[in-house]
Amino acid sequence: MDARHADGSPLSPDAMIARRLRQHREARNLSQRALADLVGYPQSYISRAENQLQRIGDGLAEALDEKLGTNGEFVALLEMARALLIEPGARNVVARESEAIRVRVFTSSVMPGVLQTEAYARALLRAGLPHDSASETEDRVAARLKRRTRLLDRRDPPLYRAVIDQAALLRPVAGPKVMSDQLRLLLSFQDNVHVRIQILPLTAGEHGMMGGSLNLLDLESGGTLALVESFRTGEAIEAPREIVEYEELFEAAKEASLSVDDSANLFTRYLQEYDNDRLPPLGLAQE
């Protein structure tokens, strides 16, 4: 009955976290204060978590699993809760990123989610989901950062190929300081053999993916999944003919893009502008 309410309806992941936290604590005859001391977190945090007033974070989930010997239960429940923050149309594709041997991404106006800094992601989420509470926004930010860790920091990461429209570099999301840090993150991948980032310049003119984004996952088991996203919507695509069409669009954008080295040079130039609290020039040539 752990996974259901008394009326038989299924519990949400957050409700499951709260229930299992209380059950594990009471099974060990621990007060909230004693559990807080055991895991090294404030009693008020434990109380809020048990009453579903605050979702636990990665640190507390890991501490609970370690100190209570729960074999990863709280980490898994937290991952489940965060998965529900992803738009329904995108969940299946995002859930299968761990199976990918190659990921190809195109974004037209923002940085790819996996390549976003914490502050950049927070600014986008606040603008796009203004009615979310502060805690809901932070949960979404944490979920986005966790995706990068799972995808690019794993022992055998996939090849990651990103094509980003130049417009994403020019839009000063959250101001010059945030953009400086964002560009530094992109430059940090310059020597990563698994990651290639290229910029599609404005001078390339129109292209087939203006106004949206595309994720292509080539799976180790064979086959490719696609995720096409626009404003707050996402559509997962598995039909081979449609996949091929989107692959063609991606390759066309990639062919029209700057080389990896030229893209990195552009990041460096724009970084200098943002560091000096200036907007970068629209052109590609050195001013």
Describe the protein's architecture and organization.
It holds the Pfam family HTH_31. This is Helix-turn-helix transcriptional regulator. There is one protein chain. The chain contains twelve helices and six strands. It has helices at 13-27, 32-39, 43-50, 58-68, 73-83, 88-95, 118-128, 134-152, 167-170, 176-188, 240-255, 260-275, and strands at 100-107, 159-165, 195-200, 213-219, 224-230, 233-237. The chain has a six-stranded mixed β-sheet. A hairpin with a 4-residue loop joins strand 4 (213-219) and strand 5.
- Measured between the Cα atoms of the first and last residue, the distance is 67 Å
How does the major sheet shape up? 6 strands, mixed
Number of beta-strand segments: 6
* Shape label: globular
Features of this protein?
287 residues; alpha/beta; 434 Repressor (Amino-terminal Domain); Endonuclease, Chain A; 6-stranded mixed β-sheet; 12 helices; 6 strands; globular; Cro/C1-type_HTH; Lambda_DNA-bd_dom_sf; Helix-turn-helix transcriptional regulator; DUF5753
Structure at a glance:
This protein is of the alpha/beta class and 287 residues long. It is built from twelve helices and six strands.
Give the arrangement of secondary structure elements.
Layout: H1 13-27, H2 32-39, H3 43-50, H4 58-68, H5 73-83, H6 88-95, E1 100-107, H7 118-128, H8 134-152, E2 159-165, H9 167-170, H10 176-188, E3 195-200, E4 213-219, E5 224-230, E6 233-237, H11 240-255, H12 260-275
Parallel strand pairs: 1-2, 2-3
Antiparallel strand pairs: 1-4, 4-5, 5-6
Helix pairs in contact: 1-5, 2-3, 4-5, 7-8, 10-12
